[in-house]
Amino acid sequence: MSETDFPPPQEFILSSGLYQNYPLTDATFPKISKFVYYTGTLDTFCVECGSESVFKIVPTGLANTNDRYLRAELDDTHIHLVKAECSRQSSHVACYIFRMGQDAGVTKIGQFPSKSDADKEALKKYRKVLSDEHQTSLATAVGLFSHGVGAGSIVYLRKIFEALIEEAHAEACEDPSWVAAHEAGYKKLNKMRDKVEALEAFLPSDLVSHPRLYSFLSVGLHTLTEQKCKALFPMLKLAIEFILDQKLDKYSQKIKRVKLDKLLSGTQL
Predict the structure, then answer these.
(1) What integer pLDDT is reported at residue 55 of this predicted model?
(2) C-alpha radius of gyration, the chain, whole number
(3) Which end of the chain is more exposed for a tag (fewer CB within 10 A), N or C?
């Protein structure tokens, strides 16, 4: 990972794992400054409301200083608190704690609610389209990542992603035209990028059009550093969510069709 790859404020606050360190350098300072002074919103799960919500950041600590003095302030190590209030109920608060300094760099060292708790609640909506085994794997992956484990969390996500791609392949095999055009060649594909492209008609367009979300899956896990795995985790998790969201939409449409059929069969027009 390049040292200039410091993520945007919202992504860094919500998605970075614990103890993932970013150096404080001339290259990263402008992006770190944007993070410190970010006063926008956070779209995340409110465990007290029990649903997705928008949280408004309340400036505290370093965020109350002037940008001109921030670099000097960071000569010493500081604890920076990001506090955000739920837009539905201001007493519902989310807190994110960071250790920052010239020598220490920038590291998330804690948050409440925990990323594991927030993500597990948010992922409950996928129960209808995800097997018990993969629900457990997804929860395990999120839990590992929230505690700063990179490679271990990626192992579980890769397993889920590959299974979802195989489900799309099974769906494609029910289409005679796809089988005639692609099946013989599909069996010979080794790279995940090629498999996704072959199955583009059966996968979310957002996934197909952003190959960086999954292209690294063709790389041996042993070649990826722990830091690289931590950086890749949010992308692969998002790729999985794209597929699951599409499956949810199809599930919802199926339920509505069943209801409509019952209504039509029981109603005289």
Answers:
(1) 96
(2) 22
(3) C
Structure tokens at 192: 């995940």
Neighbouring residues of 17: CB distance < 8 A, sequence distance ≥ 6: 108, 115, 145, 146, 147, 148, 149, 150, 230, 233
Mean pLDDT of all residues in 179-193:
93
Question: Quick one: tokens of 262?
Answer: 């019952």
* SS (HEC) of the chain: CCCCCCCCHHHHHHHCCCCCEECCCCCCHHHHHHHHCCCCEEEEEECCCCEEEEEEEECCHHHHCCHHHHHHHCCCCEEEEEEEEECCCCCCEEEEEEEEECCCEEEEEEEECCHHHHHHHHHHHHHHCCCHHHHHHHHHHHHHHHCCCCHHHHHHHHHHHHHHHHHHHHHHCCCHHHHHHHHHHHCCCCCHHHHHHHCHHHCCHHHHCCHHHCHHHHCCHHHCCHHHHHHHHHHHHHHHHHHHHHHHHHHHHHHHHHHHHHHHHCCCC
- Tell me the per-residue pLDDT of 146-166, one tens digit each, with 9 for 90 and over: 788 889 999 999 999 999 999
Residues with Cβ within 8 Å of residue 65, at least 6 apart in sequence: 73
Is the pLDDT at 18 greater than 60, yes or no?
Answer: yes
Q: Which among 209, 218, 213 has a CA at the least distance from the CA of 234?
A: 213
- Asked whether the beta carbons of 119 and 146 are under 8 A apart, the reply is yes
Bridge partners, 94 (sequence order): 84
Which residues does residue 81 pair with via DSSP β-bridges, in sequence order? 97
Write out pLDDT tens, residues 196-249. Answer: 999 999 999 999 998 888 877 777 777 888 888 888 888 899 999 999 999 999
